[in-house]
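Sample intake sheet
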Amino acid sequence: MILGVLVLGLAPTAFFQEPVIEEKLEVTDDSPEVHTPTLDESDSSSPVLGVAREFIAPETGDWTFQLRSYFFDAYLVAFDMEGSLLGEDDDGLLGTHAKLVLSLERGMRIRLEACALHGGRGSAELQMNRGRVEDLEGPSRREAEIADGRRRVKTVEAFRGPEHPKVANSLNNLALLLQTRGAYVEARPLYERSLSIREKALGREHPDVASSLNNLASLLQIQGAYVEARPLYERALAIRAKALGPENPKVANSLNNLASLLQSQGFFAEVRPLYERSLAIWEKSLGPEHPKVATTLNNLAALLQLQGAYVEARPLFDRALAIREKALGPGHPDVAQALNNLAKLLGAQGSYGEARPLYERSLAIREEALGPNHPSVALARNNLAMLHHDHGSYSEARSLFEEALAIREMALGPEHPHVAQSLNNLATILKAQGSYAEARPLYEQALGVTLYHLARNMGSMTEVERFQFLATKAGPEPLLLNLVAMHRAF
């Protein structure tokens, strides 16, 4: 039995003269199953249900069909009236919305199936546009995704109520979008509200609570709040190990994330066994060519580089890059990260000629994929600038350092440790060029940010932990020495 069938296919021709046709539909437990070779080969344990719509093309040309739902992952399928598949799409619009573009002859009748993946149910909108609606690119797409995420939160909240787990899901997804765009201050309260809803609705030991803890901890780590992040990562790991078993891939994810944080804090003795355990779980559960394997390989290699084991680190970086390029494509931000890390290792070994094109390719990928004002773009500019500095190309380095500083101040706020790094780097270039009057206030500002960051993170540490933490950080001493040098120069 088909429920919620729309009447579009039975409407008079005049109805199609509107520039956009939009109809509401509802996928319920009574909706029929939909089958295509692609859907039948998916590993979903739930049958795909859908609502059928008939469409008659009023004129020859391209038509764009868009299926939007804030309650399920949308999948759109088109058949001719003999049952031959014309096209299908998952996530071709924005987020989990679907889009198909079909070239139809006047009077041609087709059947559209508006489907819900992964056992989802609920309402949706089916839109039909004359012509080809082109995909959004760059900043326009990013802005549209965030606006769509906000609309999703409001829609689900109005339908389910403010404390429903589905609202927590929508809040979490919007926070993740904002985080990937560098809007960290706006993302944090959304993660916190998502966590609170899940704890109340699902219980404190539910795996979804662990996901919220992990995501909030990840954001805090990016913001430099290591002391706040650690207990969240540890609690997420404990929940997942208990609820899912010690060999579950999500346990590997928690191990990797906790190891990354401990590495940032300088607790190297604790880090390597966590990475190695994470790597073993990923390879066993997902296979040796999965992007998750590349993530842990990359992190383990970075640890070895910090410890001076360059020869041991190089093949791990190479393998991580190869996996990501094969699995994700050459323009993916994770490929940019792998290129950046390999370039950093080559630079540390003095191979500047090999390092520069890798840094430049990493920067180009990040600008294209994330936009010019993302913190990852600032990192790429900073690292390329450091290579120029080490090679004596001060003018090129200065420009890149200035651009990195501007991005970081805007995206991260003036008190972030990465801002202190950029201030210090720019001041060092100015000093090398003899511009002492310009360098001094930057060193002073960097010192203030550094002291703030140290106080924020060291307050609850033991004395041993403080020494370990300081051993991995650019503390205030170099900045003080530079300020003394500036004072003597005047």
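Comment: Residues 413-490 form a domain with the Methane Monooxygenase Hydroxylase; Chain G, domain 1 fold (CATH 1.20.58). The CA atoms of residues 145 and 240 lie 30 Å apart.
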